[in-house]
Design brief:
about 70 residues, mainly alpha, about 45% helix, globular
């Protein structure tokens, strides 16, 4: 059994709403983009560093340049 080729963790600039962080994570791990975005928005109700984590990922994750 061979494992499928994994895409690198990059911001998805072709399917972005703000910066493409959620869509890049969803694409990398095979998740639903809408579901991940909804989970992020709902998690913002809880206390924690969600916005800071998003901003850090925005800076750290490279953008995909060819898609």
């Amino acid at each position: 059994m061979t494992s499928p080729a994994r895409l690198p963790l990059r911001r998805d600039t072709s399917n972005k709403v703000i910066a493409g962080v959620c869509s890049g994570i969803a694409r990398r791990y095979g998740l639903s983009v809408g579901g991940l975005r909804l989970a992020f928005v709902l998690s913002c109700i809880l206390p924690g560093p969600q916005f800071i984590a998003y901003l850090v990922l925005w800076v750290v994750m490279p953008a995909d340049r060819g898609h």
